[in-house]
Structure formats: C-alpha cells, structure tokens
Amino acid sequence: MAALLQFDISISFESSIGNACLFHREDYEKIFSNPNQPGKSPTTRFESSKVSGVVPMNAIELIQNFLDPIKWMNMFPTIVTKARTIEVLDSGDLGGSIQLMYEKLHILSPLVEARDYYFVRCFRKLDEATWIMVDVSYDLIKDIQSSVPSHAWKFPSGCAIQDLDDGESRVTWIEHVQVDEKISVHHMFLPLLVVRQTYGAKRWIVTLQRMCERYNVEVGATCLPRHDLKEVLNDPEGFENVMQISLRMVKRFCEILSMTEKLDFPTSSQFKSEDRVSIRKNEEITQQKGFIVTAATSLWLPLSCRNVFNFLKDNKSRGQWDVLAGGNIVTELARIKTGCVRGNNITIIQKIIVTPRDWSLDVA
Q: Residue 251 falls within a domain, yes or no?
C-alpha cells in the first residue's frame, strides 16, 4: 500500500477519465506477486484507481469515523449499505488497529448487484502527520460467498491521510479490486462499472468531502447565513433534528435502491425487466406497524445529469413530477446549505392548495 501511494510510473498511468490514476495489470503482478490471489475466469475483470483531494476534517476525526462501522456507513451512505466488525484482531491505538470486517457496497440502482467484502482493515501511523488505512480481502470464504451474485476481492486498497494543521486533511484514496460477476451486468451500467469506475477512488473522495462539509454544518464548525435558516430552524434542537432526519432519509433511500437480494415478487409479464418490486416489514418506531411495498426502476435520459438535477430541485417544476405536490404550487420555507457545491442543501417546502374560498397549506 505504501508503494502504491507513491506515484510510480512503472505500474501506473493517468486515466483520460477524470484525474484517476490506473494500474498496469502485468507490471503490478510482477512487482507484487502473490500466489494466494484468487483465480481468474472469462468474466473476471480488474478495477483500479487512485485520486487525491483535500477534505474539511482533521486526520484524527477521519480515523475515528473509519474505525467505527456505524460511522463508516454514515460517512458513505450512498456507497456502503451494510458494515460490521466481525473481530478485533488488535485494538491498538489510532496508529495500530487491526480488525476483521464485512461490508456491502452498491451503486444507486436496483439493476446492479451489490458487492460483498470480508476484509482486514489496518491502521498505521507513518509519521507525526500521516496515517494510512489499508483494506485487504481476508479470504474468499467460498461457503459464504457461493450464494452471492458476484465475487469481489480487495487487493491492498484504502487511503493515506495527511493532517494539514488547519482542520483539513489531504486524502489519497486507492481502490483496487478483482470482480467476477456471476450475473451479466445490465447493459445500461456496464460502461459505468468498467470505464468510469463507479466504485472507484474518485467516488469515495467526493462522497467523503461532501459528508465532511455536512458534518461541519451539523456541529457548528461552519457558520450559516442567518437568512437561510429563517424562523423555522432558529431553535438549536430543531436544527439538529432536521439534520438527523435528512441523513436518515438519504440512508433509507439508498438502502431501498439496493433491493436485488430481497425480491419478493418474481419478475412477471406485467413488469418490464428494468422494474424491481420488494416488500419489507416497517421497523420504524415512529410509524404504524405493517409492510411496505417498494417499486424502483432505472432509465436512460438524453439529458445531462446537471439538467435533470436542476429540474428536480426547482420548486417551480415540482408539480410536474412529484405526486405529493399534486400539481399545486410549492414554496420554500427554509434552507440549510450543507456544502460548498451549489445545490447541496436541505430544504423545508410547503405545498399551497388554492381553493375557491381560501388557501389551504400543507407542510412537507
């Protein structure tokens, strides 16, 4: 891992996609030969990438979030569906912890199978300002993985964290895996997986940056303009509740999209092959007990993701697609800006129903 973190032109080359750095397969295997690596099949492929970025959180806080599986899931809700520590092999301090872990990763579509990893996570302190986190697959565990739709094996992957002494850290992320898909990848997502590195280092870095920005807003490290909060969120407890509810909403939404392992309805002629339907028990204590039926699909649009995003977040166009809006006017009551990128925010909106006699207000 330490060797990979240093830019070595003999095993790396710049990718034309983004700023990712990929590995030459043959050169890598010559330098880091391993007789115990998993076998290959005609469907085997390798994914490798390396990206650096500045993250608005100090190194110690980052390591504490990476050590705890719950915090790990909260830090990467759009990538990590499940995570748990199986065994702590060496409790150590922040510079010497080793633990056996499990995680399930997914992309945001029910048409792509999730990836399961059993791996050893190790932390090492390289110097006074630099730490590394290394993940390596522990074993194929064939008896466990025989029922999963894909075999995914982690070669040394992880990140280097360099503390910058100003509350920020420079993080260099490496993802290097071997994947053997048992089920053919849906044609819509194959280019994203193979070419654009959907599970690649850039996605991890960008997600980490956004969630750290959000965390700084929640704990008060980032001051918000008062006109954004308005009267709705002036109460500190109310502000904290809105932040927590929004995180649960994101996590629940992402978990629902990864429904390939729990289909309760077989695909029938009534559903297109791109449709997925599942049913689950409602475990939320704040809601009535019962079952929840969820339907999801993915589709291709001849529009840029930016144009689609702008359309969906525009309150003026919400009535055109939101069933709950019912074609009515929607107005914004309050907004919390959760990041540097325009559009990263939490909003409280209000539906206005115009009747012949008066105005009726519904708050969403």
A: no
- Write phi, then psi, for 319 (nearest 5 degrees): -65, -15
pLDDT of 293 above 90: no
Long-range contacts made by residues 310-319, C-beta under 8 angstroms, separation at least 24?
310/343, 313/343, 315/349, 318/349
Number of domains in the chain: 1
Our measurement of the distance from residue 314's CA atom to the centroid of its chain's CA atoms, rounded to an integer in Å, reads 24
- Residue among 62, 102, 81 nearest 261 (CA): 81
- pLDDT grade, residue 159 (50/70/90)? very high
Residue 9, helix vs strand vs coil: coil
Residue 155 and residue 46: Cα distance in Å, rounded? 10
Question: Would you put residue 232 in left (φ > 0), alpha (ψ -120 to 50) or beta?
Answer: alpha
Instruction: Supply the angle between the helices 201-219 and 236-257 in degrees, to the nearest 10.
Output: 160
Quote the distance between the C-alpha of residue 64 and its chain's center.
18
Q: What is the CATH number of the domain that holds 138?
A: 3.30.530.20
Sort 134 into a burial class: Cβ within 10 Å, 0-12 / 13-18 / 19+.
buried
pLDDT given at position 231: 57
Residue 309 resides in a domain = no
Dihedral (C-alpha) 69, 74, 80, 81: value to the nearest 10 degrees? Answer: 90
Q: Which tokens sit at 60?
A: 């110690």
Decide: 350 and 331 in contact? Cβ < 8 Å: yes
| Structural domain range at position 111 | 2-219
Give the β-pairing of 329-337 and 169-181. unpaired
| Cβ partners under 8 Å of residue 69, min gap 6 | 83, 84, 85, 101, 103
pLDDT at 108 over 90: no
**3-state SS assignment for residue 286:** coil
Evaluate whether residue 252 is within a structural domain.
no
- Grouping H, G, I as helix, E, B as strand and the rest as coil, residue 206 is helix
Does 260 map to a domain?
no
| pLDDT(280) > 80 | no
Share above pLDDT 90 across residues of the chain, in percent, rounded to a whole number? 31
Nearest-angstrom CA–CA distance, 286 and 142: 40
